[in-house]
Amino acid sequence: MGGSAGDLVRLVAKGHGRSRAELARLSGMAPSSVSLRVEELIEAGLLREDGEGASRGGRRPRQLRLHENAGVVVAVDVGTHHVRMAVLDLAGRVLLEHELPGEIAEGPERVIERLLDNLRMTLRQAEVEHLPLLGVGIGMPGPVDPGAAKVVAPSRMPGWNDFPIGRRMSELLGVRVVVENDANLMAVGEHRYGWPDRDNLMAVKAGTGIGCGIIVSGRLHRGRGAAGDISHVPVHVPEPVTCSCGHSDCLEAHASGAALRRILRAQGIEVSSSRHLVDLVNDGVPEATTLVRNAGRLAGQVLVPLVNFFNPDVLVLGGGLSAAEPFVAAVRGAIYERCLPLATRDLEIATAVTGRDACMLGAGSLVLDEVLASEWVDDTLAAR
């Protein structure tokens, strides 16, 4: 670990360095140098020191924490029919969250206009307008080029292809903006807040679409932007349906919430959302239950070779369809039936611990990582 002021702030933010002695041990810096830097950070309003920690035989150490007035970030989960937004402090604590209606099909300009209005309203409601906004993390329901911070070749998102939402939002707000696929963010959120001690995790988000995020050795694995995209993996089906990609046997064309709603509509049953579909299952509507169970079987069919190949510690099921027990049971059944015993021996298959907040929390985590890894700390000290 290095010895810069930013390194010390990151150690405190992650909860590793709770005292000056711990910071000296973890950073490799001399205790006197740590004390000098900590005093600078306290005077700059980035850290505070209060309370008392556990004693190791001498005087009980004072506890270090990020100052609540140092700044905030905003996390945004843009769904097909909703926007979830939260304000987080620099320790990752959620200060305020809420959900608002929104249609991704309205196009990027209208969605950005709504996001800006909602963001300002959220900061007011959280009563933190006076604090520096340091960054925004945005989750999108489609493939994302993380380097360019833009959506690439999405389905059901007219006008979004190659749209540079990250650059546009950063220009309008004057802060750094991180953009990521929602399934990747679900994986990050579940790992950070739900399974912090499990370093190899797969998170499947099954809602209007189907995606998967992968945590390898504690870090999000993006590949070159398409890692974890299971939506266009072929499945064995009796009746082909043309997918947006042009193929007829893609998982998403047969097992996503959008696909199931299309099938039910053809049967005369109108379904407004994945949540409505789950309500029909819970109400015992046989057509809905059969379709959801088959969707879980198809998803399990795709996941079997991936679980054998990756051998994760945890497989997390999230998104709207994960609230339907027949879907979850069918995924579990396929995996335990077809995977190698060694691959499932210690595997946990669970629904998302963080529930509908997973993507939002993941967005907050990634933008906090970006802020704390940036020159922000040095700039704040230089501006004193």
Automatic annotation (TrEMBL):
InterPro entries for the chain: ATPase_NBD, ROK, Tscrpt_reg_IclR_N, WH-like_DNA-bd_sf, WH_DNA-bd_sf
Name of a matching Pfam family: HTH_IclR
Domain HTH iclR-type: 7-51
Sequence similarity: Belongs to the ROK (NagC/XylR) family.
Protein name (database record): Transcriptional regulator
UniProt organism field: Embleya hyalina
